[in-house]
Write a structure and sequence with these properties.
mainly alpha, 162 residues
Length: 162
């Protein structure tokens, strides 16, 4: 996205996410819950759905905790709008460049399954698109600016999501 390099308000010194990532997931989740309350569209009547939701919720929370633990151990920020001080490539970050966002997406999916809501699940796609282009791409621009070739090597070695 060339505009990230030319817009004076979007300098690569900080990531400049379009919104706080938790809000990017919470807003569509709340909208889906509201829509589900007005016009319920169920995903399934299968009795295993809540159990899958519980398992995914536990996985998402554990992934989030592992991400936070790694970032804290490495001494860098978890806030998407703050400048990175360290390129974290250890711990869970060896498998995903964005485990925090993967965790948020897994929790979102889990809540959608627990609520048995097609509305919530349908609104997950816009949340993922906004996260990818409005947060991750901007973070990557920032990290490339901060860490150069070291970040480029990390990008070649580790997937953005899973």
């Amino acid at each position: 996205m060339p505009f990230l390099n030319t817009c004076p308000l979007l300098t690569p010194d900080t990531p400049h996410p379009v919104a706080p990532p938790p809000l990017i997931f919470l807003l569509p989740l709340a909208m889906g819950l509201l829509a589900h309350g007005v016009l319920p569209l169920r995903l399934s009547e299968h009795s295993a759905l809540p159990w899958v939701g519980v398992i995914l919720l536990a996985c998402g929370v554990l992934l989030y905790a592992a991400s936070l633990r790694t970032l804290t151990r490495e001494g860098t920020t978890m806030h998407a709008n703050h400048a990175a001080t360290v390129l974290v490539t250890s711990g869970i970050f060896r498998y995903s460049r964005n485990p925090v966002y993967v965790a948020m997406a897994v929790v979102y999916l889990a809540v959608s399954l627990l609520c048995n809501s097609a509305w919530m699940l349908a609104l997950m796609l816009p949340a993922l698109i906004v996260t990818h282009y409005g947060v991750i791409k901007r973070e990557e621009n920032h990290l490339r600016h901060q860490f150069g070739d070291e970040f480029n090597a990390y990008v070649r070695a580790v997937r953005p999501w899973l």
